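Exercise 3.2. Students should predict the tertiary structure of the chain below and write it as structure tokens, then compare their answer with the key that follows.

Predict this chain's 3D structure.
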Amino acid sequence: MEKPFVVCHMLASLDGKIDGAFFGAPETAPALKAYGELRGFYDCHATLYGTTTMLGGYADGPAPALPEGGAGYPKEDYVNVDGRALGNYIVSVDSKGALGWHANTIEKKGRAKAHVIEVLTEQVTPAYLRYLRSFGISYLFAGKQTIDCALALHKLKKLFAIDRLMIAGGGTVNWSFLQEGLIDELSLVIAPVADGGTTAVSIFERADFLPAGQPVAFALKEAKAVDKDSLWLRYETKR
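Answer key:
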């Protein structure tokens, strides 16, 4: 199926963590700055995040208790044409419809306003579809119980004309797309700090409910210092 070019762009500690105490270390600051600036290198107009990452800094926490009854919507894709006209998107993988919202756009400091697109499965309730419609949040269906990553990418290209997409965590969503052979490039900024945390998430992690899968090999495209201690590594996945 036709899909966008996909880059996974991550900031990690020396021991491969993508969250944890190392973010607060002063030595991480130059790498964090470079990570933000390098987003522009890829010129992606859509960034995809998993549910946990969305809860951590983008959505309005968990969805509230929603009343049953009322108008029902079929489990079909919905495109807000005004949101699509922005041409810039935050794509939220939310298989069961767990995220809370107050608007259909997100505007982070230093970034353009982005329209929210929810990627859902057929597990989502009619009440949650009404909730999304009340804010004009676009959504698409990709899978019955787990996300069909290839179908999601195909629909993002077909319905929203997204040609270049950035995946930016967490580890489970990164692994899901990688395991299906859908990531074209890995962009990894390494901060010169070890975390050592036992609960911190790694760059790629398999969810317990997913099959074990196979290791994925990469080929190095470029290695570059982004300050005197931090590195930017670019990899292609080996096909």
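Discussion points: The beta strands are 5-12, 46-49, 89-93, 105-106, 114-120, 138-141, 164-167, 185-190, 218-225, 231-237. The longest strand covers residues 5-12.
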